[in-house]
Amino acid sequence: MWKPTGGLTLSSAGLRAATVGITCLLLTGVLLLLTGGHWWEPETAGPGSTVISVYIRTLTWKRTAVNAPPRSSSSPGPVEHLSQADLFIAVKTTGRFHRLRLELLLETWISRNLLQTYVFTDGEDETLRKRIGNHLINTNCSASHTRQALSCKMALEYDKFLNSGKKWFCHVDDDNYLNVGSLLKLLSQYSHTQDVYIGRPSLERPIEAMETLSMTEMKQVHFWFATGGAGFCLSHGLALKMKPWASEGTFMATAEHIHLPDDCTVGYIVETLLGGSLTRSALFHSHLENLGLVTDIHNQVTLSYSTVENNRNTVTVKGPFSVKEDPTRH
């Protein structure tokens, strides 16, 4: 089993792994073009760009859930009682979205869950600092949407969670609305001491990639991962097992080893390195879906929104607010 060493080196074999790792990069690049872009940007175009048309078909742009991984999120009932204090909620953002996106979250769900919520960004913001204090985490990571920049933030999210002693780590993006009540109801069906990785995949099958075992040896791996754009959660028990590949900056080395971005890397650690599995939940939603088809809004865990060429992809919520007042709804 691969484990990170003291220094990160990129061999010729490692560079070849980047070509296969482009599976995840290409999918996201297409999604950025189609949905206005939220996830990450490859630094350079890869030779695998000819397979874009194949991966377009993997978009989750339909009402039915994607083909499930081996485990389901259904459970007979509560396993343990949870409260908001048991959660560590990490919101990933960037400086240019502090006003455009984060402000909406601060006025809605974060305002009711600030003690549990930490905002991970890439620069200092005095106004935001005065508003949420030490719940603003300046990662000093790059403001770009590259694989390296996103993995840098995820590494700090993970370390901050372990230091908190909370039972559950939940990651969301700055275009997600989080229904904490529904989240607690879902997580209460599991024990935080067990290995639980729960979220929603954006692909219809496990992703395939190549991991570098040595200068001359490579191995094909395939695994499920929960898309960060819809949010996902990790139990404390599972997070502890991830330490050799995720703590104190080793998460970035792991991401480079497999040449995949942050959410894919989490799936790689859980499924490939630890032998765990993703528990799929249809209650998580990203801007990659047709959000107008989502029903039973009040029971969903996460929602999202996007606008592409004046075409709005949002949930339908009746109420007195106009689109100008709240651009995340119909």
Verbal overview:
There is one protein chain. The chain has 330 residues and is an alpha/beta fold. The chain is 31% helix and 16% strand. It is built from ten helices and 14 strands. The protein has helices at residues 12-35, 52-56, 98-107, 126-132, 147-164, 180-187, 236-241, 243-246, 250-258, 262-273; strands at 71-72, 87-92, 117-121, 136-138, 168-173, 177-178, 197-199, 207-212, 218-223, 232-235, 279-280, 302-303, 306-308, 311-313. The chain has an eight-stranded mixed β-sheet. Helix 3 (98-107) links the parallel strand 2 (87-92) and strand 3 (117-121). Helix 5 runs antiparallel to helix 9 and helix 9 (250-258) packs across helix 10 (262-273). It is globular and about 60 Å long. Mean pLDDT is 83; it is low at 7-70.
Mean pLDDT: 83
Helix content: 25-40%
Number of helical segments with 4 or more residues = 10
Tell me the strand order in the biggest sheet: 1-11-7-10-5-2-3-4
Query: Major sheet: size, sense and barrel closure?
Result: 8 strands, mixed
Span of the ends, CA to CA: 49 Å
Strand segment tally: 14
H and E order: HHEEHEHEHEEHEEEEHHHHEEEE
Provide the low-confidence segments as ranges.
7-70
Question: In a nutshell, what does this entry contain?
Answer:
This protein has 330 residues and is α/β, with parallel strands linked by helices. The protein has 10 helices and 14 strands.
